[in-house]
Amino acid sequence: MPDPPAPAGAFCHPANGRATLRASPAAMEKDTVSMHFVDAAVARLGPEARARVLAAAGVPPELLGVAHARVPAAVFSALWLAVARELDDEFFGLDRRRLKRGSFAFLCLAALHGPELGAALRRLLRGFSLLLDDVEAELVVDGPRASVRVTSRIADAEARRFADETLLVAVHGTMCWLAGRRIPLALAEFAHPRPSWAAEYAVMYSRHLRFDAPRTAVHFDAAHLAAPVVQDAAALKKFLRTAPQSIFLKYKNEESFTVRVRRRLRGSIATAEWPLLADVARELHVAPTTLRRRLEGEGTSYQGVKDELRRDAAIHHLCASRLSIAEIASRLGFQETSAFHRAFKRWSGVRPGEYRRQALDAR
């Protein structure tokens, strides 16, 4: 995978173990990734290699192990590439056999020649099974439901969980790219206990989650398997140029309703003028019910897109401005400060006042 552009934004290092991103106004519009995935990505590196990788990606070492920290998506992408260079392994050293650099591109090329998504997906999964020893996945179709089921023989529980997370997100992201649209997952189930970062799974996989399941699997409408593969070799080159960011955060069709709504709402981040769904639907020349249905089909909702933007904007204001919490709440469209307090705690695990105090203590 080629190197992505240098990441933008700086970091905020609150004391007492809760750090997060302090982004520039441009950076705060971008996607962010939980620090859990950074910790897991470097877990199999020695001290010197870990220091080199963190430096290459621009991740401050003191953020490791900080539960509520977040990094920009571009930073995590750079980290993934740096670990792959260090280990010559695109699977973070999780399997006994290395997934050597270039393997993912090879698998995508093989999948690209499937006549429709079902055949392409089977080629992709077969390729992973051939290249890895401890982890494999298979496509199972049961009537109207299709499932990608993961079998892992990794002994360490934490490594096994991260391998499940990584393989499923890579497979699903590639599926979405091959079909040229986000394929919604009806259910994601995991053969491990519910982790503290489970909220991330709702974004990465599905809002419908199950833990302590008999197996790790994702389920979706089998009708999607008949979708044509709409990509070609030229599109693959472009896709790989943005990998792994495009994989981890899912393929994004720039003309999808999610992207179009997000693009429209970005202009509201610095104001209190958040439009209603009906207003945005009218601007997009669709009925409100159609917009809701399209967003749901892409695995999100109008409120979900709005909250993601407001979360990162709130982090920026708390770390980089002198606005009061009430002023921040008002700017982000909350009619009551108490509602902002509840929302921010749901997003980050702490109340905004505590978050800001920790940020100031660390300066």
From TrEMBL:
Pfam families xref list: Arabinose_bd, HTH_18
All residue ranges annotated as the HTH araC/xylS-type domain in the record: 259-358
PROSITE patterns assigned: HTH_ARAC_FAMILY_2
Keyword Transcription regulation: yes
InterPro entries found in the cross-reference section: AraC-type_N, Homeodomain-like_sf, HTH_AraC, Tscrpt_reg_AraC-type_HTH
SUPFAM superfamilies linked to this entry: Homeodomain-like
GO molecular-function term, one example from the UniProt record: DNA-binding transcription factor activity
Annotated GO CC locations: cytosol
UniProt keyword annotations, A-Z: DNA-binding, Transcription, Transcription regulation
Source species, domain of life: Bacteria
Entry-linked SMART domains: HTH_ARAC
Name of the protein in question: Transcriptional regulator
Species classification: Bacteria, Pseudomonadati, Myxococcota, Myxococcia, Myxococcales
